[in-house]
Amino acid sequence: MEAKSEVKRFIDEAIVWKSHELGLSLCAQILAETQEPMYPYEFEVLLLIKYEQHIMSN
User: Fold this and answer.
1) How many other CB atoms are there within 10 angstroms of residue 47's CB atom?
2) Which of 14, 22, 38, 39 has the fewest CB atoms within 10 Å distance of its CB?
3) Domain coordinates of the chain in residue numbers?
């Protein structure tokens, strides 16, 4: 049960970033880099990883 709520929190966080200005540019980067269809939630995971990398590099 703990893991499921962690996944939900993760997804909710990614959805928030999808509507954020920085999130939108990261979404565009992911879409440009990714050609094949994604698994469920893969996009959200990639978005949060990219966001984390962005934070670490700044």
Assistant:
1) 20
2) 39
3) 12-57
- In sequence order, the 6+-apart residues with CB closer than 8 A to the CB of 41 are 7, 11
Please state, in angstroms and rounded to a whole number, the distance separating the CA atoms of residues 13 and 29: 18
20-31 core/surface letters (b: 16 or more CB in 10 A; e: else) = eeebeebbeebe
The residue-averaged pLDDT of 38-58 equals 87
Q: Answer yes or no: is pLDDT of 30 > 60.
A: yes
- pTM, whole model, 2 decimals? 0.64
Give the pair of three-digit tokens for residue 35: 């050609």
Structure-model confidence comparison of residues 53 and 17, the more confident one: 53
